[in-house]
Fold ABC transporter substrate-binding protein.
Amino acid sequence: MLIGVTVNIHYYFAIGLWGSGSLLTVQARDYVEEFPIFFVSDGPYSYSNMDKKDYTGVKLNIITLSPPVMGGPTQLHAAQFSELTGAEMNVVTVPLSELFQKVMTPFFTGTPTWDAIIFPPNWAGDIMAPGYLATVPKEMLASPQWQETLPIYRHLTLWGGKTYGIPIDGDKHFLSYRLDAIDNADYQAKFQDKYGYPLQTPQTWSEYRDVAEFFNGWDWDGDGKVEYGSIEMTEPNAQLFWQFVVRAAPYVKHPAVTGGFFFDVEDMTPLINTPGWVRALEDMIQIQAFYPPDGRKFTLADVIYSFGEGEGALQVNWDDGFIQAMGEKSPIRNKVSAALAPGAKQVWNRNTQQWDEFPEINRAPFIAWGGWIMGVPADSPNQQAAFDFLGFMSNPENQAYDLTIGSYGVNPYREADFAPEFWVKYAGFDEKVAKEYTQTLQETLNHPNRVFDLRIPANQLYVNALSTAVSQALTRKATPQQALDRAAKEWDRITLRVGLEQQKQAYRELVKLQERK
């Protein structure tokens, strides 16, 4: 444990001096001055309280995603926790394509390996349902940092009425767009001439396509480089599934139709090959013409850096690329803004088996991924130390810093995160941008027609099957209908293999959450 010297936490992080042999400790009182709107109290997982812990001789094995997303903050805060408590921290990072297997193998083989895991809530059916995780201690559930977490994200840590996880992220998809493109009077006039309607923030996926086309393949921001229309996640072994679902949502999620989005809740018939999903895949095939030259194999990390460096006009994604674009060194800082993901005026009604025309735009914001969560395996011999670390990693001091680093993948999930003044004062946002950003997040999370991510056992199998099908259509190896028919058949096989009644019960719980107003 370390005693003595107090430093300014934000400055200290910013210059990157935290490292082995640093004889200093960060007290909560410094944080009050640096991030006052985040400060609740000198809580149980604060720097000062962790400095009182002695975990000398304890080794914590933690598995997380490869840096920068999640791996970056985990490594940073593990090093800090080690400095404060004396614990030996072994952080194992792996690519997303390997994470599920690496997390699950010790559970399957009965070989205790991990003291803490960082994973998406969509895997809850595979990790929480079988009892592989310890329940979160009551004292943690009573802490201010837990109580300030939005209910929508706390709910995603539950299974069977018990809490097995701790949120460290708040995910959702929304539109990020370039203000210097949309607000340019000359471009507005040219767009009007070409498309016959005013240039504006895209309200529908049809408008999104037109705006992407207009701003594709020329240097419209005068930086001497060619810009492109749309930046999207397209790598099938990464995040293609979520990029496709956000496109499908407004065509599929009819506000007057209940009973499921991915499946029919009554019999688990897959809905992913119905006309709304097919329309979305047709749109996605068209939009490929407006990607950067290497944009057909983009992962989330690629999107973050591509949009953040000013390579494109539009993206619909998590907060990360937006935050990267608003970073201190970004060439497009305060030249971007946020809005709800595009909607649709035609929505497939599966009850009547026809398209309904909407006088107003149908929105269906996608709570994509749901936000990374942290858990402690039930077979860990170091549960107290592990929960202390997870509480420390997600304390308000650390969270405030992590929020401002786009590549970290930590998005707003606590009440204080939605205060525009935080983003103005500590992240350098223009006031207008900060207000539009935080308002967009709140509208997305509170929308009555929102769509929750797939959260049932064998989630990875379903995700991989749909991603493969979408990729086949994007590469012209199958028509959209053919590809989605194949995926639907594979989803049927997965459901039967796992157990129809088990999957039906798990999906019913997801539908209850989604249809709760």
The longest helix spans residues 480-498. The mean pLDDT is 92.
